[in-house]
Amino acid sequence: FLTDLFLTTSPNSKTIQFETWVNKDGNFSKVGKSKEMPSGAKVVGQSVFADFDGDGQSEHLLPVCEDETCQRSAIYLTKLGLDQVM
């Protein structure tokens, strides 16, 4: 029941990245590389974490808008430790 840490960072004004840090006995360790926001995303929504596929691990769900007025939107799903986006 230890809490992990998920950070949304912005190294510059045009880039958004995501970092996952796992709590192992009170020490945080970064998991993998920072992930860039999906290409084509203009607006990034609120991250949601849940076990969507029932495998016992939480996935990261990210809603985005592909234009400034949010007329075109998408939902991205990623698994911890994988670079694949669904």
Automatic annotation (TrEMBL):
This is TIP protein. InterPro entries: Tip. It comes from Oxylabes madagascariensis. It comes from the Eukaryota. GO terms for cellular component: plasma membrane.
